[in-house]
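Support case: user asked for a sample of complex input and structure output to validate their parser. Sending the pair below.
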Amino acid sequence: MQPAALRSSIGPRFSTDFAFREKPPAGTLSTGIPEVDKLTGGIPRGAITEIYGSPSSGRTSLLVAVLAGASAREECCALVDTAGAFDPQAAARGGVDLARLVWIRCGGNAGHALKAADLLLAGGGFGVVAMDMGDTPPQEARRIPLASWFRFRRAVEHTPTALIVIGIEPCISCASLCLEMRREGVCWSGVPGCSQLLRGVRLRVEARKPVRPAGAAFEAGALAG
Amino acid sequence: MFACIYGKGSPVLACAREFSPQVEETAPDTAIIDIRGLGRLLGSPEAIAGAIRRRAAETGLEVSVGVASNPDAAFHAARGFAGITVVESGEQLGSLPVELLSPPPEILETLDRWGIRTFRDLAALPPNGVSERLGPEGVRLQKLARGAAIRPLRPACPEPVFEEFLELESPVALLEPLAFVLARLLNRLCEKLAAHGLAACELRLVLRLEDRTEHARGLGLPVPMRHPRAFLKLLQLDLEAHPPQAPVVAVTLAATPAHPRTHQEGLFTPLSPEPEKLEITLARIQALVGESNVGTPELLDTNRPGAFRMRKAFSLVRRLDSGEGRRLAFRAFRPPRPAAVRLVSGQPAYVSAPGARGKVIAAAGPWRTSGDWWTPQPWARDEWDVELSDGVLCRLCREGAGWFLEGVYD
């Protein structure tokens, strides 16, 4: 019997089973930066988001903005810090409620970072789990088996947790959102050599996956007020 | 019905507990017990009182027992009469002296002036007159003298001890067989906690070792818990990180009781991990990366740059003040990387350090800070914000004669 004939004969009896089931939207998480939210639609929950760029490109600033937004909504966050580079003072100034953040320092060991992230995702209950591999050399990051990333994707699927990974170069093929960060310029004020002040940096975000034709630019301030 | 046991200076609480769990320790040598229901076992009130007196005599105590329908009448009967007294009406207490009521000195003096010597004399006075002249205390004393005062029994509950001990038949050297012992003790401990409607906020494990030393471990819990499996996992992880140095011969496990966590779930409650599950997850991660590397950062009240400490507990209290969004974040190098810096007119002109090397395009500084000069660890430093030709925006600092790359703005 042909599949079409089979479907027509038993289909009406099991109509719901043959219907195409669309994956329910998992929801998104605001970054707290309207320009980036407009570009990406927000950080997807139940998926992996990869943020990459060279040092001083604003990757950590974007991550801190996401953590600040999540902790302001009273969600619990976890940061797996491969190199131990997280600065709590700068994060607190950026709006992160440190009391709602679990910080795990892995002493530069990427293997420990992967295991710690695995345990956190298996435990569940976090709004954001961030993996900071911003100081991990790209060749070492590429050596992480793809199976690990697929396992992470499977672990966060159908959960409200957003897994955010920051690195130097893209290395997660199964990431749902991939953002490239770039620094457009540095804002200084005052007279060079005597009263110059670092006011902030102008940053640019390009969505590499899914590809968006235009990027978004925003400014991150270094001074209070 | 209530029975009062008076031991004339001897403690009677243990004897009283043999007859009823509802025991009020009125004085060190006096106990009142609720004997309702004992009639089915021992018979009439006289028989119950006789049984109590016999049991006390077996333990070497000479006691007097009073039985009455209210605790105070039983108390006065036991204190006032020797042997067994069953009070059926307040008249039976009439011959007792008023001093037995322990009235305040001024009332006792007044009663003495009035010629009131016994319970019967006081009971015979008109209540309204007593109220007008002696106040509420006088009315209370008159009710006691009439054997008509009604009050509930205030049973003394012994403080429960949540501690389990097990001496092993043979020394245990491996952690796996020890886990079976711990599981058994934890089950018993959690059952006891559940029976009292309590949970544990701290576990203390003391292992007596074959070499006659002790290995003690404490486990502070972020929220009160009562899950033997979670406790076992936490103890296992802790013992794996801190194993005993010799085979174990005896185990003592104690819990500090606390009221269980009450948590109201809500439709719009934000996502948070279950505390019990989170504790096990963090304990596993601690075993992996080290205890000091897992926790919640807490800023210290100092101007020293980068000062923080790791706190174990996870707070769920909402912070009222919030920082500013869109702030430039900083990635710290721990420890700061030594840097070679060339100066031109006192300003950094070229920087070479692991992770950053290049000509200085723009610099802001020096920002001079110092502190803790009143402590043994004073600090003083100059900081520069520097943009390098290789694209790195970093923070340089000079402490003493050394230059360091403290981190990068990212």
